[in-house]
What we know:
Number of helices of chain B: 9
Oligomer: heterodimer
Number of strands of chain A: 10
Largest sheet of chain A: 6 strands, mixed
Strand content of chain B: under 5%
Bound molecules: adenosine-5'-triphosphate, magnesium ion
Strand order of the largest sheet of chain A: 6-7-8-3-9-10
Shape of chain A: globular
Structural class of chain A: alpha/beta
Largest interface: A-B, 46 and 34 residues
Radius of gyration of chain A: 18 Å
Shape of chain B: flat
CATH class of chain B: Mainly Alpha
Distance between the termini of chain A: 32 Å
Distance between the termini of chain B: 95 Å
Amino acid sequence: MQEKMIEIKHLRKSYGNNEVLKDINFSVKKGDVTCIIGSSGSGKSTLLRCINLLETPFEGEILYKNQNVLEMKNISSYRAKVGMVFQNFNLFENMNVLKNCTIGLTKVLKEDKEQAKKESLYYLEKVGMLPYINARPRQLSGGQKQRVAIARALAMKPDVLLFDEPTSALDPQMVGEVLNVIKNLAKEGFTMIIVTHEMAFARDVSNHVVYMNNGIICEEGTPDEIFKNPKKEETKNFLERFINI
Amino acid sequence: MKALPDDFLGRIAFIIEKYGENLLKGAGTTLIIALVGTIIGCLIGFVVGVIQATPINKSDNIFKRIFLRIINIILTVYVEVFRGTPMMVQAMFIFYGSAILFNIHMDMWVAAYFIVSINTGAYMAETVRGGILSISEGQTEGAKAIGMTHVQTMVYVIIPQAIRNIMPQIGNNLIINIKDTCVLSCIGVVELFFVSKTVSGAYYTVFETYTITMVMYLCMTVFFSKLLRIIESKLNGPKDYSLSTTDTLAYTSGMLKYPKKEVV
Ligand SMILES: Nc1ncnc2c1ncn2[C@@H]1O[C@H](COP(=O)(O)OP(=O)(O)OP(=O)(O)O)[C@@H](O)[C@H]1O
Ligand SMILES: [Mg+2]
């Protein structure tokens, strides 16, 4: 059996009296590409943000390689192992593209400058952003920014990559370039959890699909199970809205 | 002794010739107090502003929370007191007050630097706090997500951006300080205004002397506002970027093996 990378048990989260996550259970094995789909407000982002502790869960366990991360003393070093790519990129505005990638390597992983630069250039090449290393984030298009953000996350050599709607803030013509980068990562065997509204992409890239509705996992399974033969009414209704799949 | 000329320009020339050096020395004093005061004040402002902008988490332990609250109350009082009273009154209060009340005879220079710094600090604290809060939450999250600690996030990501945003305010404070050091003449600091008073009194040439003084103040403030503009545009980084060429491409091609994933 493959090793469990992330396991979530009875996770709950509320904002005030608004219960956003209600008893979430699921696990991700090494090499899994998990896509989380579901309508707006169903708690997908909240779940993802709980996994790298940008939000503190209310109850439950998050196990990373069988260790409960909610009991970890050093949250920062755990976060360094779990990369996150945001909808709004969140590139550091005060640094150029190269520095955006090297800063984590030099300051968090304490690598020396030359090594950090080499590695960063390697990952920037991987996402096709090598020519732009001197540019500032505000000088780039959305798709370019997102590719840099992916390189920044990759450079940390994380065990798991989390994507929260990586293409939702992009113009249609830039969506493809970012999805292609993610598809290549999937081929190389990266473990990823991706929240997305791109159903065709979810079907092609993942081996595990989770459909969330109103703070619970309504249905999960392989892409074929979810997209071809959904069992639950809610899943069917949700998927019907995406015609082209 | 030369007599005072009859015409306005002649009298100005006369004053410059006779007292130019004193006036320049006064201006030097003004500048040095304003500059040092602004720099120390900015440092104070940064420390206070950063502490005040630190969120108090419910998850922190009780002692840390109480400690932070007490510090915050002290800092709020500091900011309100020094922002809410005139610098001249503070100068009298601190310089003469400390002598009468505590029998501390503060050195005049120490008092001068202290008053300007502490005042600027109070203003800057609010500016810095605002500057930090104005940086979008996304920047903090991006930093946290790659494993930066709170301090690293502040030092490498938030404060550099905050500084850029509050540069105009720092400049503003320097300009204000260049002008407002004149209130220190009340505790006997021989700065430009003090010298001007003495000079104008010597020959009853108020209009002429203060014309020179006006020009001198204006030169200093204009010079520094221009200088700060230049620094600001430097902080913005280059307007264009050059696409990197084959050099860097060669640098990566084949030189670095794909880092192997750890097998655990
Ligand atoms: N900081 C917050 N404070 C209060 N309520 C919040 C907060 N963040 C999210 N919520 C609420 O939690 C619920 C789930 O939000 P979440 O962002 O996880 O949804 P989502 O599935 O990611 O939606 P979308 O597809 O629109 O991104 C929503 O009802 C939202 O209003
Ligand atoms: Mg969301």
